[in-house]
Write a structure and sequence with these properties.
175 residues
C-alpha cells in the first residue's frame, strides 16, 4: 500500500481519537456474561488507552478477573451521514492495573486531571479508583461501506485494507 494512503488512514484515526473523550467498553464477568459500559480515556500511541475507574463499577471487577477487553471509539451520531456506516475504531485490548506506587501512576492521573478537570482532585484520592492501561492487541478502523482497515498493536501506523479476499484468507488460517 502506498505511504500516502497509510498516512491518510493514520491521520483519520488520529482525528477520530481526538474528537471523543470517552470509549465504550466490552467486558466479561466470571460467568462469561457480557457487560457494555463506558469510561473517559487518555490515549498514548504505542502505549494504548488509560482509564481511571471505580472498583464499584462492574467493568472494573470484570477486567480484574478477565483482562481481555473490547474497546469501541465511534463518531457522534449527529455528525454522521450514514448511521449504518459510522466511522469507528474497534480494539481488542488487554487490561493491566497500574498500582498507585508505580512510577507512571501520578503522571497519568495528572494527565487525567488536566484533560477532565477538577473532579479528578476529588476521585484521585479515593482508594476504590484504579488506573488501568488497555493495551491494544489488534483492531479495525472503519470509515464507511467497503472502507475498513485492520491494524495490530497500538502504534496505529500500519493498516491493511479489509476486503472479501483478506477475510477469506483470515478465516482459512483460523481453521
Amino acid at each position: 500500500m502506498q505511504a500516502n494512503t497509510q498516512n491518510e488512514i493514520a491521520g483519520a484515526v488520529a482525528r477520530l481519537l481526538l474528537s471523543v473523550r470517552t470509549l465504550q467498553l466490552a467486558t466479561l464477568n466470571g460467568d462469561g456474561r457480557p457487560l457494555c459500559s463506558y469510561a473517559p480515556f487518555i490515549f498514548e500511541p504505542g502505549l494504548g488507552f488509560f482509564i481511571f475507574v471505580s472498583e464499584l463499577a462492574g467493568h472494573t471487577r470484570n477486567m480484574r478477573r478477565r483482562p481481555e477487553t473490547g474497546v469501541l471509539i465511534i463518531d457522534d451520531e449527529g455528525k454522521t451521514k450514514q448511521l449504518f456506516a459510522r466511522e469507528r475504531l474497534r480494539f481488542e485490548c488487554r487490561a493491566e492495573f497500574i498500582s498507585r506506587d508505580h512510577a507512571d501512576w501520578k503522571q497519568r492521573v495528572d494527565s487525567f486531571e488536566k484533560q477532565f478537570g477538577a473532579v479528578l482532585k476529588l476521585i484521585r484520592g479515593l482508594t476504590d479508583f484504579y488506573l488501568i492501561a488497555l493495551q491494544p492487541i489488534r483492531g479495525v478502523y472503519v470509515r464507511g461501506f467497503g472502507d475498513a482497515w485492520a491494524f495490530a498493536g497500538g502504534q496505529l501506523q500500519q493498516f491493511s485494507h479489509i476486503d472479501s479476499e483478506s477475510l477469506a484468507q483470515n478465516s482459512d488460517a483460523a481453521k
